Amino acid sequence: MTQTRAPGRKAGTQGPSPRPRSRFVTLTGRGAAVALFAACFLSLLIAAWTGWDLLADVIFVMTCGLVACYTRASGLRGVVVCPPLAFLAGSVLAQLLTAPDAFSVVTGILITLVIALGRGWRPELPATGVLGSLRGVLRDLRPRDGQRVRRR
């Protein structure tokens, strides 16, 4: 068999050269949301079966950090709202799979939501003008001579 050389081409090379691959893995916004949901769901299932509730919390925090680091800059805006939604969907699905009856499922979901609402609800902070009102509230709550003074 005879090899022929085309002008401008080296012998033995075929087709275009392979594209250089990136060393870092990057996620799209959707991929980050799916990864976050999968991690939440699997960790909640494992926690329900083993009784290690702290495991689900630790995996959730670690996954949030990893997703924030490995998501492309264009997908970060959508990833901001994903952690609470992914945890909610994962906990609902894990409750559906692990609870013995429908009443237990509804009770577990409602108790989880009430606890989450109680932890996130802060009625003493006003909701208007986030930065300016926060500065005002912090200035008003600053301790003076060992006492908390509220200005009006």
Describe the structure.
By secondary structure, the protein is mostly helical. It folds into two domains: 29-121, no CATH class; 125-152, no CATH class. It is built from six helices and two strands; from the N terminus they run H-H-H-H-H-H-E-E. Strands 1-2 form a two-stranded antiparallel sheet. Strand 1 and strand 2 (147-148) form a beta hairpin. Helix 1 (29-50) packs antiparallel against helix 2, helix 1 (29-50) packs parallel to helix 4 (82-98) and helix 4 (82-98) runs antiparallel to helix 5. The longest helix is centred in the N-terminal third of the chain and has 22 residues, at 29-50. The chain is flat and about 90 Å long. The mean pLDDT is 76.
What descriptive keywords fit this protein?
single chain, 152 residues, mainly alpha, 2 domains, two-stranded antiparallel ribbon, 6 helices, 2 strands, 60% helix, 3% strand
Average pLDDT rating: 76
Element order: H for helix, E for strand: HHHHHHEE
- Distance between the first and last residues' Cα: 96 Å
Strand content: under 5%
Largest pleated sheet = 2 strands, antiparallel
- Helix residue percentage: 55-70%
pLDDT under 50 segments (min length 5)?
none
Spatial arrangement of strands, main beta sheet = 1-2
**DSSP summary: helix tally:** 6
Q: Structural class of the helix and strand makeup?
A: mainly alpha
**Domains counted in the coordinates: how many?**
2
Tell the overall outline. flat
Radius of gyration: 26 Å
Instruction: Please tally the β strands and state the result.
Output: 2
